[in-house]
TrEMBL record:
<dbReference type="InterPro" id="IPR006016">
    <property type="entry name" value="UspA"/>
</dbReference>
<feature type="domain" description="UspA">
    <location>
        <begin position="2"/>
        <end position="134"/>
    </location>
</feature>
<dbReference type="InterPro" id="IPR014729">
    <property type="entry name" value="Rossmann-like_a/b/a_fold"/>
</dbReference>
<dbReference type="Pfam" id="PF00582">
    <property type="entry name" value="Usp"/>
</dbReference>
<feature type="domain" description="UspA">
    <location>
        <begin position="150"/>
        <end position="278"/>
    </location>
</feature>
<dbReference type="InterPro" id="IPR006015">
    <property type="entry name" value="Universal_stress_UspA"/>
</dbReference>
<comment type="similarity">
    <text>Belongs to the universal stress protein A family.</text>
</comment>
<protein>
    <submittedName>
        <fullName>Universal stress protein</fullName>
    </submittedName>
</protein>
Amino acid sequence: MRALFATDLSAASEAAIQNETSLETLQQIGVDTIDLVTVVPSNVHAGMPGMDLEGRRERALDRYQSVMEDAGFEVDTHVVRGTPHRRINGIAGTIGADLTVVGSRGKSPLENRVIGSTARNLSRTTVVPLLITRIERETAEPEVRREQLFQRMLYATDFSENAERAFEAFSTLRHATESARLVHVESPKDAGATGDEGDDPATRLEELTAQLEEWDIETEIDVRQGDPADEILAAEDEFDATTTLLGSRGRSRLRRLLLGSVSETVIARAAGNVYLVPPSRSA
């Protein structure tokens, strides 16, 4: 598997890249090649006062590359200019990445629905599965908050086609997963829309549970009522999930750029990591 690591050379990015446990977890799911990419925004120029951009990029990428090669990965580096999320998506598609990884400090102390602009834009437009690793806030030397990335998985589903596609990620993630909680949230707007008549959510979740238990993943189901985003976040907290797995689009017919509000809210407010699976490219 090939993973693309996006870095802005910040302390948060460095924490995600240099965390040994997280790197070992990626190896567990089959990642053996990593592409490091840093994007220089178009409005930033090397000649700007006080900015040794070229030297800083080279030193940081050399250091990151050494860490990852020492951990056993094959590593390529990319330094490009442009709009970060567009260039990252473009490289991911060009190299055939199986996964994009980006670090985010998550909740802003000023506005709890704000996440880093690159992570937010990637979550709206990603062409491959996206892992947003949650980094500690308000510390000079931040760490990954849930370094055992896929150990305890919370899977949220509305039984849509894209949610089913997200569930398929377990075929790879299972090599690093010990337990999982499968959650479906019923809301007034969803009444009668979850499946065939008489096919209740608990039954459908039990069917998914059978698959995970074949892989020796301890699994439980959770059917809740209320606001989907709020209930998913509550389930994450109760289960102490290391990562929440969900699709980037449910039953909405809006184009992918307009990410469903549930996914975007979860990404912004989750305490742990989020693994987001986009629709297939042919969708």
